[in-house]
Write a structure and sequence with these properties.
One of its GO terms (cellular component) is plasma membrane. Pfam families: BPD_transp_1. It comes from Micrococcus luteus (strain ATCC 4698 / DSM 20030 / JCM 1464 / CCM 169 / CCUG 5858 / IAM 1056 / NBRC 3333 / NCIMB 9278 / NCTC 2665 / VKM Ac-2230) (Micrococcus lysodeikticus). It is found in: Cell inner membrane; Cell membrane. With 576 residues, the chain is an all-alpha fold. The protein has 2 domains: 29-43 and 341-568, MetI-like fold, CATH 1.10.3720.10; 79-290 and 309-334, MetI-like (MetI-like fold), CATH 1.10.3720. It is built from 25 helices and 4 strands. It has helices spanning 2-6, 27-56, 71-78, 80-113, 119-127, 134-145, 160-185, 189-196, 201-229, 232-238, 246-256, 260-288, 307-330, 341-345, 360-389, 396-414, 417-431, 433-438, 441-463, 467-475, 480-509, 514-517, 525-533, 538-565, 570-573; strands spanning 114-115, 300-301, 333-334, 337-338. The protein has a two-stranded parallel sheet. Strands 3-4 form a two-stranded antiparallel sheet. A hairpin with a 2-residue loop joins strand 3 and strand 4 (337-338). It is globular and about 65 Å long. The protein starts with a helix and ends with a helix.
Length: 576
């Protein structure tokens, strides 16, 4: 879990130790090891994204030929609908970011700097939503806010407010985790000195603590903005028809109108939004960066002055618990009363008339199969990549290449899954239709989405290896490969399980790219859930609730195992 929420600060340096001794004797072999991950990123990320961008400016995405023709670009930008969708995307992302930060800061303070009953349970509850698939989050809020739900009287179902609340539900844990981790390590003596000089608690926070937390706040806010701007699953399942974002419009133009040129223009706009967020994050982090005095201290007792932060923390817990609890409870409610009817329908062909013959149980089986394939592909690429990123290279060229590879790895994290999926459509699927027919593209696209998370789960573990252990092994006569196997190997083995769990959970719930590539006759469970929600009938809605509950339990269970497997201390503190 911690790896998921800490990895994603764009521009964050990875922790690693540099050896000052001689090389490890595997210099040429590291060049060979770099071929696989570099080729994977070029073929399955750079090519699809470049093809999408090229089509957006009028070229032939299949062959990167043809003159640049900005006619479609100009026509799309001239439409009022384009600017309305762009405004909706930026507005909802900004609102989700502001509310997530406003709720996340006091929650991080209470859960990391104060002793509260059940603190470990509360922290786990707050962090759970981030590992849930976006489709599950959307279904949970539909169950809470729809007519007949506990908060159906509010009239918030399928409104912008509902979408923003779901975004906050999904992303407040990012702020709590990143800011809380730094807050917990700040030296409290500076704040105590300000209080001794007569500063009020609020003034001491504003003048001492807040500037120290600014880099973490900026990084987490940028990450939350990226997630909110690319919350395709939430918008698709929770937003009202006709109210879209850039990502949902890409899907509509591709799947409904078959207008790939217009979809490519919207993809370019979405890419520009992501790039702008990354640049703003980098500039803000650079301007607020400062040397900090870190001194982790035990949390203090609650005082009356903490009443407001505690109230905010309880509101966040309620925001987290209410949709999940409602989802689980309502999944047992059928049109005939309470019972297991919705779960029994999962194994029937009740929905075969509109999902190509697949039942929810078959869709789950397909999701598990695809997730296994995607996990295997992810690990094959992530292991050599993580080893490369943590090698103590000495030459400037090698270090520059290492930094460039590290930066390139962040790009799949910033580019939305919808953009990746659409890029696959206009490049790989168009060039190799037999691959699309075989279903291979779905796990490959999911592996692209999961790769940064898996690598960030491995890097802190390998970076924790003391270089002196390698030197000692070489001094005792061990060859380069034996050093790698006996020194790095045990650390790598501990991290692979966590990386595999992250990759599997991400692939299992992936919706953005899969919605473009999944076969109508063999949908994954998230895709089928979205289809069920779009169809009338109590049975369809009940199956969607039951399927979402199953998916939520699987995802949360996998991440719980990952958290148990994750090494404690420095080796497990980094990552995503």
């Amino acid at each position: 879990m911690s790896a998921l929420t800490e990895v994603a600060a764009p521009g964050t340096d990875l922790p690693r130790r540099r050896a000052r001794g001689r090389g490890d004797g595997l210099g040429p072999w590291w060049l060979v090891a770099a071929v696989l991950p570099v080729a994977f990123l070029l073929v399955f990320f750079a090519w699809p994204v470049a093809a999408m961008l090229w089509r957006g400016i009028g070229g032939d995405a299949d062959a990167f030929t043809g003159a640049v023709d900005l006619t479609a670009f100009g026509e799309t930008l001239a439409r009022e609908r384009t600017w309305r969708i762009l405004g909706q995307t930026l507005g909802m992302a900004a609102a989700g970011t502001v509310v997530s930060v406003a709720l996340g800061l006091p929650t991080a303070f209470v859960l990391h700097r104060r002793r509260v009953p059940g603190r470990a349970v509360l922290r786990a509850l707050v962090l759970v939503p981030f590992v849930l698939p976006t489709v599950v989050v959307g279904v949970a809020f539909r169950a809470l806010l729809a007519p007949g739900g506990p908060l159906g009287f509010t009239g918030l179902d399928q409104t912008t407010t509902a979408v923003v609340l779901a975004m906050v539900f999904f992303n407040v844990s990012v702020v709590v985790r990143q800011v809380g981790a730094l807050w917990n390590a700040l030296d409290p003596r500076q704040t105590e000195a300000a209080r001794t000089l007569g500063a009020s608690p609020w003034w001491a926070f504003r003048t001492v603590t807040l500037p120290q937390l600014a880099p973490a706040i900026a990084a987490s806010a940028a990450l939350v903005f990226l997630f909110c701007a690319s919350a395709f699953g939430i918008v698709q399942t929770l937003g009202r028809p006709g109210y879209g974002t850039l990502e949902s419009e890409i899907w509509v133009q591709t799947s409904v109108y078959l207008d790939l040129r217009t979809a490519a223009v919207f993809s370019v706009l979405q890419f520009a939004v992501v790039l702008a967020a990354v640049v703003v994050s980098g500039v803000t982090a650079a301007r607020t960066q400062r040397a900090l005095r870190l001194r982790e201290t035990p949390p203090a007792r609650l005082t009356r002055a903490d009443a407001v932060p505690v109230a905010v923390m309880l509101a966040v817990v309620a925001l987290v618990v209410a949709p999940i609890l409602t989802l689980v409870v309502r999944s047992f409610h059928t049109r005939h009363g309470w019972g297991l009817g919705n779960y029994e329908l999962l194994s029937t062909s009740a929905g075969s008339g509109f999902v190509g013959g697949s039942t929810p149980a078959q869709a789950l089986e397909q999701s598990l199969r695809v997730a296994v394939d995607a996990t295997l592909v992810t690990l094959v690429v992530a292991v050599p990549l993580a080893l490369l990123l943590t090698r103590p290279f000495r030459s400037r060229a090698a270090l520059a290449a290492q930094r460039a590879l590290d930066g390139a790895l962040l790009l799949p994290l910033g580019v939305s899954a919808v953009t990746v999926g659409f890029g696959f459509v206009v490049s790989l699927r168009a060039t190799f239709p037999e691959l699309a027919a075989s279903g291979v593209l779905v796990p490959l696209a999911q592996a692209v989405v999961a790769l940064p998370l898996a690598v960030r789960a491995l890097v802190p573990v390998l970076a924790a290896v003391d270089p002196r252990l390698r030197e000692a092994a070489r001094t005792l006569g061990a060859g380069p490969w034996r050093v790698l196997a006996t020194v790095d190997g045990p650390f790598l083995a501990r991290g692979v399980g966590v990386a595999a769990g992250f990759a599997f959970a991400v692939s299992l719930g992936e919706f953005g790219a899969t919605s473009f590539l999944a076969s109508p006759s063999a949908p994954t469970l998230p895709v089928l859930i979205a289809r069920l929600l779009g169809r009338p009938g109590a049975d369809n809605y009940g199956m969607a609730l039951a399927a979402a509950t199953v998916l939520a339990v699987l995802s949360a269970g996998i991440m719980l195992v990952c958290e148990r497997l994750r090494p404690r201390g420095p080796a497990g503190a980094g990552g995503l």
